[in-house]
Amino acid sequence: MRNMWLRMLAVLLAFTVIAAACGDDDDDGGETPASQPAADTGTSATDDAAMDDADDATMDDSDDAAMDDADDAAMDDADDVAMDDADDGAMDDAAAGPDLTGAELQLWGWASSEAEDIQLTALVDQFNADTGANARFEPQPEYDAALQAALVAGDPPDLFYVDSGRLPDLVASDALAPVPDGVISDPDDIYGALRDVFTIDGTWYCPPKDFSTLGLVYDPAAFEEAGIGVPTTWAELAAAAEALTTDDRIGLSFGAEYSRAGAFLFQAGTDILTADGTAVALDSDGGRTALQYLADLFASGHAASPQAIDTGWGGEAYASGAAAMTIEGNWIVGYLNNNFPDREWAVAELPTGPQGPGTFAFTVCYGVPASASDPDLSWAMVDYLTNAEGAAAWTSGFQVMPARASVRDSWVADNPKLQAFVAGAEYASRFQFPTGVGEIQGVFNDNFQRLIRGETTVDELIAEVVSAGEDLL
How would CATH label the architecture of 214-360? Predict the structure, then answer.
C-alpha cells in the first residue's frame, strides 16, 4: 500500500518535471496537438494543438496561439450540431455492456474551447439518453493541477483526457488502467499509429478521441503565379521556397522547434531518441542529413521562422501573407476561417524525405484511472465516445479528425480540403518522450534556433543533445 501511494505521489513530480521542460525558447513557436488543445488536438490538433510542449499535442505555444482563435470559429454552428449518427447506432455495441442506468460518471478534460465543450456535452447528453446514465463532462480550467490533486487524494474522475505526452508519466506511476480485452469496439478500426501512441511496453492504455497531424499549407494563387507544382520531395520543397520568395514574402515559414522540425527527422529515418526511448538517435547519418537540409534551407533566405518575419506562429505568417507556405496542423483551418476568411489556402502532405514520409500525430485519449470505483462503467462510456458512431458524432462539427479508419471517407467527404491531414495517420509518429527525459526537447529547440540563425553547426547541435541525453537517460 505504501508503494502504491508513493507511485501516485510521483504523478505530481512527473507533471512538474514536464512543465519545467516545456519551451522557454525565445524563438519557440511552441508546442500540438495537437492541442493543445492538440492537439486537441488535439486535438485537436491538435489542440487545442495545444498546449505546452508535452500537454497539448497537439502541442506547443504556436499551437496555443492557433487554437485560441480557432476555438472562436470552429463551432459557430455548434449549438445546432446533430447527434443523428450517435442516435442511430452509438449504442449498438454498448447494449451488451454493463447496466448504466443511474450510473454517476465524471469525465474530466481541459477547457480548451467553447466549441469543444458544446460538442462533447452534446455527445455526453446523448450517452445519458441512450443508457440511462447520469454522466457529466466537467472541464477543468487548471487541468493538470486538478488531476494531480485528484489522483494523489485517491479520488479521481471516472475517465479523463490523457495527452500523449503525459502518458509515460501516468503509466510509470501506476495511475492508469490498461484497456481490458473486449471493452473497446473493433479496436483494429483505430489507426495503428494512433494505437501505438498510447501503447507502452506492449500494453494499450486508452483509445484516442481524435487526432491532428502536420501538413504543408500553401497559397494556390502564389503557386500558379510562380508556375510551380506542389512539392513532394525535399528538393522540390527547397525549389518551391525559392520560387515563392519575393521582396515582401518568404517562401516557407514554420516554428523553429522539434514539433515541426521533427517531421524532417522522421523523413530521414531517425528521431531525437531511439524508438524505445533509451538512447539518443540524433547522432546518425539521418540526423545529420535532416538537420543540414534545414540549416541550408534557412541559410538560403527562402525560409524563416515566424518570429524572424514579425509574426507569432506559422499560421499568422501564412495568413498575413508574409509566407507563401507553412507547416502546421489542421487547427490552422479554424484560425484562417475565423480571422482571414478571404485568404485562400490548400493543404498537401509534407514532402517525402530520403527515407519516406513523416509527420507527427498529436492526440489525446480517454483514460480510466487504475483506482476507478467501477471500471466497467468507465470503459462502457469510453467505448461509447470512441466507437465509430461516437467518433463520427464528435468530429462532425470542427476540424479535429476521427481516429477510426471506418469514419475516414465520410469525414473527408464533409471536409475534402483536409484530406492531406488525414492521410498522415498512416505513417505519423508519436509526440512523446519517456518519463524524466522531456527536457531534451528544450535542448534541441534552443540549439535548432541557433542553427537556423547560423550561430552553431549541425555537429555542435547534435553534441549538445547527446550530452543532455547522457545526463537524462
Answer: 3-Layer(aba) Sandwich (3.40)
Peptide bond into 10 cis (omega under 30): no
Asked if residue 183 lies in contact with residue 379, where contact means CB atoms within 8 angstroms, the answer is yes
CA dist 107 and 161 (Å) reads 8
pLDDT, tens digit, 9 for 90 and up, residues 32-91: 433 333 333 444 333 443 334 333 333 344 444 444 444 444 444 444 443 444 444 444
Residue 253 β-bridge partners: 304, 326
CB 384 within 8 A of CB 94: yes
Measure the CA–CA gap between 298 and 253, rounded to whole angstroms. Answer: 9
In three-state secondary structure terms, 136 is strand
* Cell matching residue 455: 550561430
Q: Where in the chain is the domain with CATH 3.40.190.10?
A: 78-213+361-430, 214-360
Domain covering 78-213+361-430 assigned CATH 2.40.50.90 in the classification:
no
* Helix/strand number for the chain, H first, E second: 20, 13
Full-model pTM: 0.83
d(C-alpha 2, C-alpha 333), whole Å: 49
Would you tell me how many other CB atoms lie within 10 Å of the CB of residue 391? 28
Mean pLDDT of 293-321: 98
